[in-house]
Amino acid sequence: MSTARAIRQVFLAIEQAEGAGARVRRSIGTPKLRNFSPFLMLDHFTIGKGAGFPDHPHRGQETITYLLSGGVDHEDFAGNKGTIGPGDLQFMTAGRGIMHAEMPHENEDGSPNVGMQLWVDLPKELKMCEPRYRDLRSSEIPVAQLDEGRVTVKVISGQSHGIDSVRDLAYTPVWLLDVTIRPGGRISQPLPKGWNTFAYTLEGDAVFGSSDSTQHVKQFHNVVFEQEGDFVEASVPDNAEAGARFIIVSGQPLDQKVVQYGPFVLNSQEEVYQAMVDFQSAANGFEKSRNWQSEIGKRMAH
After folding, report:
1. Rounded distance, CA 128 to CA 90, Å?
2. Mind telling me which residue stretches traverse the membrane in this protein (predicted)?
3. Bridge partners of 157?
4. CA angle at 43 for the pair 39 and 45, rounded to the nearest 5°
5. 63: part of which helix (H) or strand (E)?
6. Domains along the chain?
7. Is 105 part of any known ligand binding site?
8. Which pTM value belongs to this model?
9. Which of the 8 DSSP states describes residue 130?
10. Region of 156 on the Ramachandran plot (φ > 0 left; ψ -120 to 50 alpha; else beta)
11. Residues 55-66 pLDDT 10s
12. Cα 201 to the chain's mean position, in Å?
């Protein structure tokens, strides 16, 4: 018998200022939700003209950036450069060390650049791996249609209703699904056993949970599910004025201590101190950071 996962908590992601001129709704990595392994942080960001995330380092984690609208450029100290547009993703493994900048586009219509950034912990044996990037274009993401077309699932990673993403984009196993439900639609989404799972609501209102215990959830909320159970359920009532859109994210928990100081995520206080020393002395993975400045970060100077 497969059973539905119960909801552990639901809470609003409060908007706050972050970086230079960005607005962020942070839900994971706040007092409401910490130590939700392998997830370290989830930001729903809005970055307009003249704002962004200029040159900064990372060690010990992976970041997954999913752009919903606009465009974001990135550039790092190893000469990697790229741009993601609406519906595109970038998976960055910081590993032993990366220094990079992420800067938004100035859109002709003045619209902001909006997206999600998820930080995923790396298993301790991979903390010091070589950094890498993988881009996934919107056009490469397979789509599952279900419930007579009332539900659409973009299968970014993982599996949904017979559609497999066929991509391993992160070292730590993570499923990422972008779900749109029209009024009257319902989804029952199977998930790997024992993985930590949440949903984040982007648009509209949805009902999460199954028959005996459901919760009506509005926009910009994080829905955290219990670890036990085989699937999560969500629906939009027949009489709803509009549909709903949310992401479902599930990841394999890591049995390890998390010690985080800003952009460094390691397993002990000593390793964090070492990361700070390595960055300041441009050593052990940060050699290329010495005197490096991104071209895109210079946009902030004007």
Report:
1. 20
2. none
3. 176
4. 160
5. strand 61-69
6. 13-251 (2.60.120.10)
7. no
8. 0.95
9. P
10. alpha
11. 999 999 999 999
12. 13
Bin 125: left if φ > 0, else alpha if -120 < ψ < 50, else beta: alpha
Closest C-alpha among 247, 244, 162 to residue 197: 247
Distance CA 205, CA 217 (A): 6
**In the block, which residue shows the tokens 């973009």?**
154
Length of the chain: 302
- Does 56 count as an annotated binding residue? yes
Tokens 């010495």 locate to: 290
148 is in an annotated binding site: no
Using only the alpha carbons of the chain, give its radius of gyration: 19
pLDDT score at 106: 83
Residue type, 9: Q
Give me 238's structure tokens.
């027949």
Tokens of 69: 């609208």
What SS3 state is found at 167?
coil
Amino acid at 229: G
